[in-house]
Design a protein that fits this description.
Chain lengths: ~100, ~500
């Protein structure tokens, strides 16, 4: 399953990475190199094998659905690139 | 006096603090002086928190005076920059986090500080822990304190915990925190003549550690001796309700396992770890390790882990897939770098392109591709099934053996720039360590010999899930037999 340049552009968009046009071909080559190496997994017989989801078998812990933290907008906004009046300021989303 | 203090092991420093031979403040000042002298050359610390360290040391001395000393009271440690530290810049060595300063403390560092540890500063690492040579850091590579004989070639301390390994090896802290997703504790430990352990997945809370690949990431220490590693690990482990994968179990006293007899233990030697092109010195070291354990009364058992060769390819699907998902949070809106753009999508794309380095972008691309519509079953699901096969290999092996002995890395430390051209060549560094991450097992690397050019080589002990104690017993026996005493000569 070789990756062509259009696929690279599509994946970069899905990943929200601005990829300059001159990086598209080299990126395709790099990804194809890695994927060609990964292809050897097709040799493994995985018929009837359950995919691994956790290393040590434990039941997912449950907790009460209660507020345990919060009420500290200053801490939440402390690292914001832009904040005003207790809100994050972001680029316009709706025209 | 102060140069001598930094050379102490954690265990002997704690005993000196306990007897009043020196104070934590004196010890901390000695380390801060050593860092000031060495860091311009080694680049191990990306941030030195001198004032905080002195304040923590004074508080530790006061607690000790009141008879309230914790198990690590007054011990100066370095903290990998992947751990969020309250009020102290934490960047995962990525430009995308900028000057991010957490308003909270990671669970692991909180545990260490509650036990009395002092933080000297934040340690350099590969960006988001993605790398095996510390060359992907936004702060530039760490240089190993070790050199090939008299050559001035700059060597890598390994990665991703290169700052942790370099700082411990150069006596710039008593021990350090580190993290291991595919070998990032054990390979740097092997490259720098230090001891590093990745515990069983779920022993250490991941809360407050910047996420890379959540099903593989585990914290652990890098230290000067096996006992020091046991002491640090005991403080780092423990159940944390804030991490749903943290195991609700007691932490044993790992130090009690160090020095325990290994007589009668069965040690597995996996034939698949005898890879093509392995240097003769590594082969010889492995044979020597087998002989040491035989002498200590262990039974050596040849075993097979047939799916070993598929571990790295499976890892390079699972880890980038999880990373692409985890790193989606860096969108330039709530924290970190925000680039200018013509609309929202453009701001996202430019912030991420400017903020992430080349290797991180490469892994996000692979991860996004293997998770994209139509490819999930062929890649991610298949890799998770192969992972189950690898874990089953280990379960079968542990029917017959109590621990497994392997080399830690396929070579000694290499020069900076020597392998950075080809990603797959770089990935092969983790060939012996990545299996323990995929299967969630504890693995420890300890220094066992030096090669012909004087560089350290490591052996790895892999244990059953939750059986760190046997890993520590076997490692302590190997440490005793090896008598590894080599130290880098200070050239900085």
């Amino acid at each position: 399953m070789a990756i062509d340049e259009n696929t690279v552009r599509r994946v970069a968009h899905l990943a929200r990475l601005a990829l300059p046009e001159e990086r598209v071909a080299p990126m395709a080559a790099e990804l194809n190199g890695i994927l060609a190496w990964i292809e050897q997994l097709n040799e493994v017989d995985v018929e009837g094998v359950e995919p691994m989801t956790s290393a040590v078998a434990v039941a997912l812990p449950m907790r009460e659905d209660v507020v345990a933290d919060g009420g500290s907008p200053d801490r939440v906004l402390a690292n914001a690139p832009k904040a005003e009046d207790g809100f994050f300021v972001v680029p316009k989303v709706v025209e | 006096m102060s140069a001598e203090l930094t050379k102490l092991t954690l265990t002997s420093a704690l005993s000196g603090l306990g007897s009043g031979a020196f104070s934590s403040r004196e010890l901390t000042d000695a380390f801060l002086d050593a860092i000031e002298a060495a860091n311009p050359a080694l680049n191990a610390y990306v941030l030195v928190t001198g004032d905080k360290a002195r304040a923590m040391a004074d508080a530790a001395d006061a607690r000790r005076k009141r008879g309230e000393a914790g198990p690590l009271e007054g011990a100066p440690l370095g903290i990998k920059d992947l751990f969020c530290t309250q009020g102290v810049r934490s960047t995962a060595c990525s430009k995308v986090l900028g000057a991010f300063t957490p308003t909270y403390e990671s669970s692991v560092t909180a545990r260490l500080f509650a036990d009395g540890a002092v933080m000297l500063g934040k340690l350099n690492m590969d960006e988001f822990a993605m790398g095996s040579s510390n060359e992907t850091s936004a702060f530039g590579p760490v240089v190993s304190p070790w050199r090939r004989g008299n050559s001035e070639t700059k060597l890598t301390p390994g990665g991703s915990s290169g700052g942790s390994a370099s700082a411990v090896a150069a006596d710039l802290c008593l021990g350090a925190t580190a993290t291991d997703t595919g070998g990032s504790i054990r390979q740097p430990a092997a490259f720098t003549g230090t001891v590093g352990i990745k515990p069983t997945y779920g022993r250490c809370s991941r809360w407050g550690i910047v996420a890379f690949a959540s099903s593989l990431d585990q914290a652990g220490p890098i230290a000067k001796t096996v006992t020091d590693a046991a002491l640090l690990l005991r403080s780092m482990c423990g159940h944390d309700p804030k991490d749903s994968t943290s195991l609700p179990i007691e932490t044993p006293d790992f130090t009690a396992a160090c020095g325990k007899s290994v007589k009668g233990l069965r040690i597995g030697i996996p034939k698949e770890y005898r890879v093509d092109g392995m240097p003769a010195e590594i082969e010889a070291l492995w044979t020597q390790g087998i002989a040491w354990l035989k002498d200590a009364g262990c039974t050596i058992v040849d075993i097979s882990l047939p799916h070993t060769k598929y571990a790295l390819p499976a890892y390079y699907i699972v880890a980038p897939a999880e990373a692409s998902s985890n790193l989606a949070r860096y969108d330039g809106m709530r924290y970190g770098l925000r680039a200018d753009g013509r609309d929202l999508t453009d701001v996202y794309q430019k912030s991420r392109a400017e903020g992430f380095g080349k290797e991180v972008q490469r892994r996000i691309m692979i991860g996004t591709y293997v998770l994209s519509a139509g490819y999930y079953d062929a890649y991610y699901l298949r890799a998770q099934k192969v992972r189950q096969r690898i874990a089953q290999d280990f379960r079968d092996a542990y029917e017959k053996v109590d621990a497994i002995l392997t080399p830690t890395a396929p070579s000694a430390a290499f020069g900076l720039g020597e392998k950075s051209g080809d990603p797959v060549q770089m990935y092969l560094n983790d060939i012996f360590t990545v299996t323990a991450n995929l299967a969630g097992l504890p693995g420890l690397s300890l220094p066992a010999a030096v090669d012909a050019s004087g560089l350290p080589l490591g052996l790895q002990v892999i244990g059953r899930a939750l059986d760190e104690e046997t890993v520590f017993s076997v490692s302590a026996a190997l440490e005793k037999a090896a008598g590894f005493a080599a130290k880098p000569t200070a050239w900085w």
